């Protein structure tokens, strides 16, 4: 390494680069840390900037939207109130929350039973069956739409009885939601339930529970991180769902149309209320943000616990 | 408290027979130990009693009730597990009261019973601890409290001490015996450790290959093993077992001969069994004091293991009289003797050994069944014959 000469500008600059490179090679920890912060900042920018952009749009008065820049043109906070005046947005949010809760409940019950069977019992065909469940989760949801729509619209008849028309009711939404999220839920819970030592279940059964009782009283409480993970992931998935919600409902809040459909309703044939859509989107994020904040500790341990020993 | 009866209990896993036509009658208040090597079917048996495993065939009765197909919770049993199996998400009180709360006992009654159980296992004041805050021995005692709190008819214990360290294990062994004395409940105890079986039980069921080899009080299993398996399994270190033949003269093998009047219908191939403590140095005080010693056996001390209270010496016996040849003879018969620690024996030293004839066991090598325990019944004839042999 040559000593930098202070009197020549060009040389001192190349000397600086040389020193930096040399240091980075000898002690790479610093470089790693820098790269880590670059990666984190990039990721944060990618996730947080859209939210900021929504805020900018929501606060910009509608007539100035065509010239929107990186900062809001004005401070039109009234958008957050108009949201509820133009469309009964709170009702859409309520629909979404109820659909999400319903789906989560069904998924937890069914996936718990399936997870118990797959994770804790030995029976012929266990692995093939589990693979079939997994394979179904690879199907594109759109592939199920046409037959399901015909079924829910009352166009399928069997032995002269046609199916009831359940469009615009939860009966048309919960089955596809639960079915689509079930495979992942079964997988997560199977992994968790399989880790609970047999002795604990035996002890519970000796002490006086049935197999089901042991599941509820011992296995599920001990798998709380896994159960919380499944619950939150299911909730968020249904809360954000658009494809089936859009096709199975009319768009009226009285017809169980969810939040995303509500946001879409700010766009009509002749108007695009982008500032209200932005405000509505931000409001819609709040329930999920609260849920994740409450459950984050469990979810984090749940997502990593699969790799750990009991 | 209740009797426990197993009738022709069989458990097959595919082609593997884990338990084979097993019958067991445990009387009220008895402490019975199922002992055997790993994989012998003892754990399957206790799981069948508990109802955790359903037998392929046969029936289980507790008291006068047939419980073969009842779920575990309806059998009136409690169980302590090898891995302790406390519920990690519940504190000590909730663990102990788990079964009572499931059965909707009144709060006051639950409190009373839990207090009493905690007192019995000497864990008062630990009610609000989490299991992870307890030591191994304390956890096992909580598990025992959980079992006794429901006043079960039958107490099942599946290697409850196996995961504890050695000193704690012997301490808990004593505690369990005291507990049994105090509760007077029927106990079925599973272990692979013959020392545990010997020290705690009223009767031992020695199990091998899914069948009961012998069901008798500990000392009966020790002194009169019914077959070669029990002879080899019970006792530590194990019995010396020497294959040989039976002739008109008595027992003979390459290195060791013992003369006696053979019983009628004798098999040709027999195995002689003698415990280490029944092998004596011929010129020792105890050896020469035997009322009916056997013919002296030439041997060479091979390995010496001083234990403090006694010394185990592995002798090699061979037909040749030369000590050097015996030591290098690959076919030499090994004979283990337990001698007093003050005995003066050195490695490679040639000695003469005698066996206590009254403590010699003979087994039919082919079937493994015992033929006789002790040769003193025909002591005079045998001794006479031996005296003759000596003169020759």
Structure description:
The complex is a heterodimer of chains A (310) and B (392). Chain A has helices spanning 9-26, 29-59, 79-86, 89-120, 126-137, 142-152, 170-195, 198-207, 211-222, 224-240, 243-248, 259-264, 274-305; strands at 157-158, 161-162. Chain A is mostly helical and 310 residues long. Chain A has two domains: 9-67, no CATH class; 79-305, MetI-like fold (Orthogonal Bundle), CATH 1.10.3720. Chain A has a two-stranded antiparallel sheet with strand order 1-2. The radius of gyration of chain A is 27 Å and the shape is flat. The two termini of chain A are 54 Å apart. With 392 residues, chain B is an alpha+beta fold. Chain B folds into two domains: 4-225, 3-Layer(aba) Sandwich (Rossmann fold); 240-391, Nucleic acid-binding proteins (OB fold (Dihydrolipoamide Acetyltransferase, E2P), Beta Barrel). Chain B is built from twelve helices and 21 strands. Chain B has helices at residues 42-50, 92-96, 98-102, 107-120, 136-148, 166-183, 194-200, 218-223, 228-233, 285-288, 323-328, 379-391, and strands at 4-13, 16-26, 31-35, 57-62, 65-66, 77-80, 154-158, 186-191, 203-208, 211-216, 240-246, 250-252, 257-259, 269-274, 279-281, 297-306, 311-317, 333-339, 350-355, 361-364, 370-373. The N and C termini of chain B lie far apart (64 Å). Classes of the chains: A mainly alpha (310), B alpha+beta (392). The interface between A and B is medium-sized, with 16 and 24 residues.
């Amino acid at each position: 390494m040559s000593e930098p000469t202070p009197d020549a500008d060009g040389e001192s600059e190349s000397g600086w680069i040389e020193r930096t490179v040399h240091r980075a090679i000898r002690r790479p920890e610093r470089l790693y840390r820098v790269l880590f912060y670059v990666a984190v900042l990039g990721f944060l920018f990618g996730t947080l900037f859209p939210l900021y952009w929504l805020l900018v749009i929501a606060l910009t008065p509608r007539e100035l939207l065509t010239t929107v820049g990186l900062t809001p043109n004005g401070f039109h906070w009234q958008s957050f109130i108009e949201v509820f005046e133009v469309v009964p947005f709170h009702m859409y949010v309520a629909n979404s929350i109820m659909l999400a809760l319903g789906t989560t409940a069904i998924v937890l019950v069914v996936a718990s039973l399936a997870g118990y069977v797959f994770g804790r019992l030995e029976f012929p065909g266990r692995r093939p069956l589990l693979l079939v469940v997994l394979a179904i989760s690879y199907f594109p949801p759109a592939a199920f739409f046409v037959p399901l729509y015909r079924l829910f619209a009352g166009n399928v008849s069997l032995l002269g009885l046609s199916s009831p028309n359940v469009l615009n009711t939860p009966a048309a939404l919960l089955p596809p939601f639960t079915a689509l999220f079930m495979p992942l839920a079964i997988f997560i819970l199977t992994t968790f339930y399989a880790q609970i030592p047999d002795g604990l279940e035996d002890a519970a059964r000796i002490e006086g529970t049935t197999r089901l009782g042991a599941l509820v009283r011992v296995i599920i409480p001990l798998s709380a991180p896994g159960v919380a993970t499944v619950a939150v992931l299911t909730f968020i998935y249904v809360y954000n769902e658009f494809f089936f919600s859009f096709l199975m409902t009319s768009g009226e809040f009285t017809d169980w149309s969810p939040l995303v459909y509500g946001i879409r309703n700010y766009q009509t044939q002749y108007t695009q209320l982008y500032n209200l859509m932005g405000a509505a989107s931000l409001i819609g994020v709040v329930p999920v943000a609260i849920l994740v904040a409450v459950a984050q500790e469990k979810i984090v341990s749940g997502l990593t616990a699969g790799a750990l020993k009991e | 408290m209740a009797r426990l009866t197993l009738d022709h209990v069989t458990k097959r896993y595919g082609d593997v027979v884990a338990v084979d036509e097993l019958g067991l009658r445990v009387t009220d208040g008895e402490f019975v130990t199922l002992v055997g090597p790993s994989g012998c079917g003892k754990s399957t048996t206790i799981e069948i009693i508990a109802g955790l495993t359903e037998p392929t065939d046969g029936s289980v009765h507790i008291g006068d009730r047939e419980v073969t197909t009842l779920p575990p919770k309806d059998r009136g049993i409690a169980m302590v597990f090898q891995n302790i199996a406390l519920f990690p998400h519940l504190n000590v009180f909730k663990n102990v009261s788990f079964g009572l709360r499931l059965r909707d006992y009144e709060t006051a009654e639950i409190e009373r019973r839990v207090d009493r159980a905690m007192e019995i296992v000497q864990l008062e004041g630990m009610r609000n601890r989490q299991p992870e805050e307890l030591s191994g021995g304390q956890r096992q005692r909580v598990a025992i409290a959980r079992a006794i709190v429901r006043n079960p008819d039958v107490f099942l214990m599946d290697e409850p001490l196996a995961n504890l360290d050695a000193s704690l294990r012997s301490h808990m062994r004593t505690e369990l015996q005291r507990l049994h004395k105090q509760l007077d409940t029927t106990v079925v105890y599973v272990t692979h450790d013959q020392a545990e079986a010997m020290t705690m039980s009223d009767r031992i069921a020695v199990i091998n290959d899914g069948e009961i080899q012998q069901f008798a009080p500990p000392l009966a299993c020790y002194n009169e093993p019914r077959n070669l398996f029990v002879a080899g399994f019970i006792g530590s270190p194990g019995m010396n077992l020497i294959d040989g033949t039976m002739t008109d003269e008595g027992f003979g093998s390459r290195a060791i001969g013992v003369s006696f009047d053979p019983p009628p219908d004798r098999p040709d191939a027999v195995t002689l069994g003698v415990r280490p403590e029944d092998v004596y140095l011929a010129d020792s005080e105890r050896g020469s004091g035997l009322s009916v010693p056997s013919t002296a056996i030439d041997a060479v001390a091979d390995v010496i293991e001083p234990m403090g209270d006694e010394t185990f010496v592995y002798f090699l016996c061979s037909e040749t009289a030369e000590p050097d040849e015996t030591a290098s003879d690959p076919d030499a018969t090994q004979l283990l003797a337990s001698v007093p620690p003050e005995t003066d024996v050195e490695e490679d030293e040639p000695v003469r050994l005698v066996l206590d004839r009254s403590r010699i066991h003979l087994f039919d090598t082919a079937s493994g069944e015992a033929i006789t325990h002790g040769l003193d019944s025909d002591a005079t004839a045998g001794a006479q014959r031996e005296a003759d042999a000596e003169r020759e």
